Structure formats: structure tokens, C-alpha cells
Amino acid sequence: MGIKIKIAAVAISLLVIGGCSTNNSQPAEEKDHDIGEMDHSTMSDMMEGHMSHDEVTSLNDSTGENELKIPSMLEREDENSIVYTVRAQKGKTEIFDGTETETYGYNGSFLGPMLRFEKGDKVKIRTINELEEATTFHWHGLEVAADVDGGPHDALKPGEEKVIEFEVTQEASTLWFHPHPKGKTAEQVYNGLAGLIYIEDENSKSLGLPTDYGKNDIPLIFQDRTFDDKKQLNYSAAKNEDGTIGDTLLINGTLNPKLTVNKEKVRLRLLNGSNARNYTFKLNTGDSFVQIATDGGYLNEPVNLKEVTLTPSERAEIVVDFSQLNTENDLALINEEGSILLPFEVSDQSGAISRIPGEMNDFSLTEEEMKLPVTKKVELFGMMDMVTINGKKFDPERIDLTQQQGVTEVWEIYNKPDMMGGMIHPFHIHGAQFKIISRDGEEPPENERGWKDSISIKPDERVKIAIQFKHKGVYMFHCHILEHEDNGMMGQVKVE
Ligand SMILES: [Cu+2]
């Protein structure tokens, strides 16, 4: 506890230093040198990991009293050749013992099932809106035609349904789905609308990685919430225009979760499903783990890390080898402040034999792609409800950018600081996976050399990405702080 308070105090003083540096127009790198001693990445996380101009509420430690819930795997249906049915609905959920909380969910009262696709699958999904308000079904990270992507143009009114069809053409990855109605995304996600998509392919099935769903292949959806004194999710009371943050962490909708594992390699598919909070995940023992996948697929090689940071909507797959850890200690996944997110209970059983191969993928950023000129510029700016992209707020009638189908272009995304220094914006583009060329002219870190659909951009940072769209139509690009998105920090690219 003492440590946590101390770190918080350092963080506050760093915010002050960060603010001064920005006013002096010092480059971000120099700021780190001033502070010396601490680990470089920890330092920058603490300085720029704040996701709001306000001080960020800490997360309560998980007491570990509830076993982590694992989302059910949605059954395939053969009738009428519709493969899946996904319903958005209202319900009541016992998040706290003995109390019902009003929530939203897909095919249940809270969150959603996991949808499993294989590369090459021709998928039909019957989407049904059983809510009392309009919603959409957006498949985050999926490379599909814009008319099935579920952006704000595709709202289903209460009681409406729509059958969508697409072919899965991308490689094995962990994606997710959530609503995207204009101005209401943040509240609907907050109330519980989010689910997972796993894509598998020949490669993923042959690598020998842990794949026993719920046993050694564990999805973890991280969402922070504020509950009122009646233990309800009162979005309008909790709402912050600059990103809604809560003091209570739910993982897969589980309050105070713990995860029981065998002494084996366990794959954790981390999804930051929060409206606005950033997480730097690490083990409380300081032990390292390996990252094996980014948002849209496997890394070429596993990357050894002691921590990994995810901003809203980003994913990372990591493998923790519990057979190699000292299980005499209390083991837990913690965040940058030391808050206990997920305690682990390690059983004596040795578990399955799985491996982490040295080579997992053939992702490449070509010389040609690196030499392409910047042909799209995107500038993120503002705070609260005054957020813009290229100086404009979202207008569904306006096309901001156009790009040819199947042609790779380089986008440069710049996070323009404001008077208070600015904040991280997680930038997401629909309908495609992209490659990071550079961050402020430098090669991206090893664990970002893979397919991405969302990228964190720090204040004053300039990022270059190479992106190609496989399909036509109008796609959204936006900040994935959901309140910023709802406040108009969103534009449209038309793929012709
Ligand atoms: Cu933002």
C-alpha cells in the first residue's frame, strides 16, 4: 500500500514536470532524461499514461474472491445456413453477491459470447436489436466490406434485425465486437455490450501454443467501472467527457476475479475493453513473460517483456509460464500503479505440454512500403467535448479521405498537444489491419511489429502507418476513448 501511495505522488510530480516541458516545447525524449534513475518505459508510462487531464482514479485491488468467468463459445447454427445469431439485449446481472445490476449484453445479460471463425469461413450473422434504443454491431479489427462493418450508418432501431455476410480472409487473431451508434457508443459499451472474436487458421493450429479455451488459453476483457450506492452502472453520473474512468475493475464481467491455473504455459489474450483507461500489465514478482500476438495476428517471434501497455481497444496475447515461476509467492497480474488486477492460484497439476515456437509468422514491412510518401495526414487535437480530427468534428455526410481499394498508402497521424500538455489518444481505423512504419521517425518497438488496428499516440507524437483496404465502402477512423469518439473525434475514409 505504501508503495502505491509513493508511486502516485511521483506520478503527480511527473505530470507537473511533463506539463512544464511541454510549455518549453522540449521534445518528449528529453523529459525522460531529467528524471533519471527509473526505468525508461516505466517513466514514460507514468508521465504519459494518464488518459485524462484530470488526475486518474486508482483501481481497487482485486480480492480474488471470485473465479474468473470465461465467456461461453457461441454455438454454430446450421438451420437456414445462418451460422450465428447475435442479439443485443437488456438484463440484470449479479455482479455483486445478492444484488442485481441492470446491464446490457449480447445473447445474455452482460457482455457477450466468444465467436470463433476460421480463415476462409463464409460467415452469416443474424444481428438483432432487442434494446429500447438504436444500436449497431461493429466487428472491431475484422477486414470486411463497409456495409457489414457496423459503423454509425448501420443503426438498427429497437426490434430490427439484419443478416450480414462476409468471408474471413485474415489470419489468426483476437478481435472483438461492440456497438458503434452515433453519440451512444460509450454508454452502450459501459453498460456491457462487448464480445470476443477468435480467428484461427492453419498456422495457429500448428504452432503448438496453448489452445485449451478457458484452461490455458484465457480471454481477459479489462473494463473499469463506477458503481453507485445501489450498485448500479449509472453512466450519466459516472460520465467524464474526457474519458470515463472507474475505480472498480471487472475482468470478463467478474468482480474481484482470480484465475486458477495449472503449472504450465498459459496464454492470456488481453483486451483493453475500457472506455478510457490505459493499463500497463505486469507480474507482481517482476518476472517476464512473452508477447506472441498484436491486435491482428502473431508476431514473427515471441518478445520477452516485463510489462505491456494497452490503450482502449488494443489487444496483446501473452504467455506466462507458470511451470517456471516460484509459486510460493503470491502471483498476480498488476498494473503500473501496483493495483492487483488478477491474482493467480497455481494448482499442483502440471497441465498440458505446449510450446512457444521461435518463429510464428511472416509479417513484414517491405522496403517499398517504408519508402512510400505520406499521402494522408491526420491530426488529433483537443480535450473533453472539444476534440477534433484535422480541426473538424464528425459529420456523417462528409467524406474526409479517399483511398483506392487494394492500394497501400502511408498515413501520418499526429497528436497535437494542447495548453495542458495533451493526452494519449488511441487511434483506430475500421475495416483493415495496418503496419506501423515509425514512431517519431524511429522503428516501432519489437512488440508492435505486427498487424495493428489501434495504436496509442502520445502527445506530440507523430506516427506513420502503412494501410491497405481489401474492401470498398465508407469506414470510420477515430479515437477509441469512447467519449472522444462520441464527441466527434472521428472521420470517414471512402475506399473506392
Ligand atoms: Cu481521444
Automatic annotation (TrEMBL):
Boundaries of every Plastocyanin-like domain copy: 89-203, 223-326, 370-496
Domain of life: Bacteria
Keyword ATP-binding on entry: no
Keywords for this protein: Metal-binding, Oxidoreductase, Signal
Keyword match Oxidoreductase: yes
Pfam families registered for this protein in UniProt: Cu-oxidase, Cu-oxidase_2, Cu-oxidase_3
Signal peptide coordinates: 1-22
PROSITE patterns the UniProt entry points to: MULTICOPPER_OXIDASE2, PROKAR_LIPOPROTEIN
InterPro entries, per the entry: Cu-oxidase-like_N, Cu-oxidase_2nd, Cu-oxidase_C, Cu-oxidase_fam, Cu_oxidase_Cu_BS, Cupredoxin
Similarity-based family: Belongs to the multicopper oxidase family.
Name of the protein: Multicopper oxidase family protein
Organism per entry: Sporosarcina soli
Lineage: Bacteria, Bacillati, Bacillota, Bacilli, Bacillales
